[in-house]
TrEMBL record:
PANTHER family: PHAGE TAIL SHEATH PROTEIN, PTHR35861. Belongs to the myoviridae tail sheath protein family. The lineage of its organism: Bacteria, Pseudomonadati, Pseudomonadota, Gammaproteobacteria, Pseudomonadales. It comes from the Bacteria. InterPro entries: Tail_sheath_C, Tail_sheath_structural. Gene3D superfamilies: 3.40.50.11780. This is Phage tail sheath protein FI.
């Protein structure tokens, strides 16, 4: 500063200067199974920051090639796919629905890792959304929800108020089941699950088949689809060779019959050769009996002359036919059917929790409109259908959410994902799990707006700690918070025609503090917000004016 006239000049250095900046509002952590790419080593139970899909693929496997398998289950002789490791697909779904920065928390050893979830997340204060990725048992899901719920900021948890929990409802014997949460107004539930455009692995041929040595197929315990396909090719070659043998012997029988002038119906030979060809090409059990029937017709015809050379050839011919059919029924057909089944299972689409897609919707809505905008009436990407996971019957089935079913979900405090013609799959709910009496915290956008304000103000006021608890400090705090809230009002986050109607900030002696508070080093700041709420119900009142001309 240049001094031009005589006088007294005062310069203040290191004076208290407050400014409140808005931080990131939608940074999720995905808790689930993640396969590290460093020679398959199990990752430590710690949060890993992910800035992009490229960042993720440089540290973790992008599909479930290492862990996806198909197993023969002895109960009810079922063949099932094990594709419960959904961490990578969940991160991808988050990013494709508008998400940006996130964290992943590997809990590959579920029973041992669950106790470390809370401490690991607490080390990352910028995490604001909590998501569980996997489909496990009802008890395991509830255990995870309990651990994550402790971090959302209920009165007894000691957690941060800015964290918000996303969970999923399911069906339990055709009844809507919702996990219990510690702080209902810090959580939102969604239903149903999402059938995606993803596959568990890009390398279908390498999918491991387990437990088939227990079945009638008598395969060895560890096999993959490629090896099974090679086995089927070998069986088809054996069948082709057997077909050649049967046809050659049939020609010998026919030649002998012609030499002995035994009249045979052309139908029998045509049926014989046509059936053999059909069995080989289509591997269809419906044609396998035709060969035997043709043989029986030949036997009946030739048996009129039991001493003929032709008739003496029939036992050996019959054995060739029996061997051919045994090969077909006991090896070729079962293996071909098994190959079709496992390939179908290996190509089944990945089913993800709706909450992981909603984390992306939250991030996109916050970025484009603001945290005060309800994350609803938004189309989801990479979703091909809606499915209900029934944890009671252990089934996954297609489902359509209509108005009647949606009413049931609302009563259970669950937000719906619905399919609308011309729009695709749309988020159709914006409520927290707060009870009917907690109307102040009914909406996700309201709860998250207040959490964001709490976090931003808390971060900004740390610089005021150990400052004099006096009027100049109070003024600085009031102005900083007022400027921050004024920006929110200008961005239409707060309702009210004037700033005075939208918010207030109070701090000072005999206003928010007593002499005892000041003497004990307590500075109390009171903030009030008039948050906007979503237009959840739009009612059109239509009348017909019969007297209009």
């Amino acid at each position: 500063m240049s001094y031009q006239t005589p006088g007294v000049y005062v310069e203040e250095s290191n004076a208290l200067s407050l400014g409140i900046q808005s931080g990131q509002t939608a940074v999720p952590v995905f808790v689930g199974h993640f396969d590290a790419i460093n020679n398959g080593a199990v990752p430590a139970v710690q949060c890993v920051r992910i800035d992009s899909w490229l960042s993720f693929t440089q540290q973790f496997a992008s599909d479930s090639s290492q862990t996806f398998s198909i197993d023969y289950v002895s109960i009810d002789n079922k063949i099932v796919a094990h594709g419960t490791y959904l961490g990578a697909a969940s991160v991808r779904m988050f990013i494709e629905n508008g998400g940006g920065v996130c964290y992943v928390l590997p809990v590959n050893d579920f029973k041992k890792a669950i106790q470390y979830i809370g401490p690991a997340i607490d080390l990352c204060p910028d995490i604001t959304l909590l998501c569980w990725c996997e489909h496990r048992s009802e008890d395991d899901d509830q255990s995870i929800v309990n651990e994550l719920g402790k971090l959302t900021g209920s009165a007894n948890s000691g957690g941060m108020q800015s964290r918000f929990l996303l969970i999923d409802a399911a069906l339990k014997n055709n009844t809507v089941a919702v996990p219990a949460v510690v702080a209902p107004h810090h959580a939102a539930a969604y239903f149903p699950a999402l059938r995606t455009a993803y596959r568990y692995t890009a390398n279908i041929e390498a999918v491991v088949l387990k437990g088939f040595d227990k079945s009638s197929h008598k395969l060895r315990s560890l096999l993959n689809i490629k090896e099974l396909r090679e086995r089927c090719d070998d069986n088809l070659k054996k069948l082709s060779d057997a077909e050649v043998g049967v046809k050659k012997f049939a020609m010998d029988v026919k030649s002998a019959a012609e030499a002995e002038k035994i009249t045979l119906e052309a139908f029998s030979w045509d049926t014989m050769f046509t059936s053999l060809h059909a069995i080989k090409d289509s591997v269809d059990t419906s044609d396998s009996d035709a060969v035997a029937k043709s043989y029986e017709k030949l036997k009946e015809k030739i048996s009129e002359k039991t001493d003929s050379k032709t008739f003496k050839l029939l036992p050996a011919f019959k054995k060739l036919i029996d061997d051919y059919q045994t090969l077909c029924r006991e090896e070729v057909l079962p293996d071909q059917e098994l190959l079709k089944t496992v390939i179908k299972l290996a190509n089944e689409p990945v089913v993800l929790r709706a909450s992981v897609a909603m984390a992306g919707v939250y991030a996109r809505t916050d970025r484009e409109r603001g945290v005060w905008k309800a994350p609803a009436n938004v189309e989801l990407s990479s979703v091909t259908g809606l499915v209900a996971v029934d944890i009671g019957n252990k089934t996954v089935s297609d489902i359509r959410i209509d108005d009647v079913f949606n009413e049931t979900l609302v009563k259970n405090k669950v937000n719906a994902i619905r399919a609308f013609s011309g729009r695709g799959h749309v988020v159709w709910g914006a409520r927290t799990m707060a009870g009917p009496s907690e109307t102040a915290w009914r909406y996700v956008s309201v709860r998250r707006l207040f959490s964001t304000v709490e976090r931003d103000v808390q971060d900004a006021l740390r610089v005021a700690i150990f400052e004099p608890n006096s009027q100049p400090t109070w003024v600085s705090v009031r102005l900083a918070i007022s400027h921050y809230l004024h920006r929110l009002w200008q961005d239409k986050a707060l309702t009210g025609a004037t700033p005075a109607e939208a918010y207030f900030v109070r701090v000072g002696l005999h206003e928010t503090m007593t002499e005892e508070d000041v003497n004990n080093g307590r500075m109390l700041v009171s903030i009030g917000l008039a948050a906007v709420r979503p237009a959840e119900f739009i009612v059109l009142q239509l009348t017909q004016d019969m007297g209009a001309t």
